[in-house]
Amino acid sequence: MAKVGLPYDIDTVRDEWIGKRSDTTRGRYPVEYDAIRRHCHMVEDTNPRFLDPDSPEAQTTHGVVAPPVMVEYFAGQGVWPPSQDGPRLLTQVPTPGDRFINMGNELEFLQPLHIGDHLSSYVKIADVLQKPIRLDPLATWIVTETHFLNQNGDEVAIGRNTLLVHRSPDEVTSGLD
User: What would the pLDDT profile of 128-153 be if each residue is shown by its tens digit?
Assistant: First the structure.
């Protein structure tokens, strides 16, 4: 987090950061059958829509589709070789503290992921607010949205993440920033 000194002006931070978005990055790998098959076998998912292109279930979606939970995998950069992306947008939002807790993730799936799709994504700051917690009256909450797009620019999913950023107990009691 981009730690800032006190006093902290949440209105200025909100005006500057809400709506900011990262560059769009293209996923390293296209949606492919073998990755879907391996995932399904690993989690013991036998849904024919994901595994059997000749099944009636797969025919309703015009062929095998990826389990929706794989959207982040196919839009991501993989673990190797390491990504050379610059600093993440989320870490640039100024906050009084530098300790963070992931408060929750949710994914909304809008369209199926078809074999051959090539996904990309970008992150947008949806909200920044101050909401006190017992530990820190200046706790800052940052809500981001990750927009997942297919090769046609159609949105296939939206991920929402809420992050709580707070100061250490010593910083709170001593008034340090």
Answer: 999 999 999 999 999 999 999 999 99
Alpha helices in the chain (DSSP H): 10-17, 33-42, 48-51, 56-60, 71-75, 169-174
H or E segment and range at residue 24: none
Tokens in use for 121? Answer: 């994504």
Give me the number of domains the chain comprises. Answer: 1
Residue corresponding to tokens 């870490």: 91
| Residue span of the structural domain in which 164 resides | 2-174
Which CATH number does the domain housing residue 129 bear?
3.10.129.10
Question: Could you read off the pLDDT of 4-44 as tens digits, one per residue?
Answer: 767 788 999 999 999 999 999 999 999 999 999 999 999 99
Q: Measure the CA–CA gap between 3 and 91, rounded to whole angstroms.
A: 9
Helix (H, G, I), strand (E, B) or coil at 68: helix
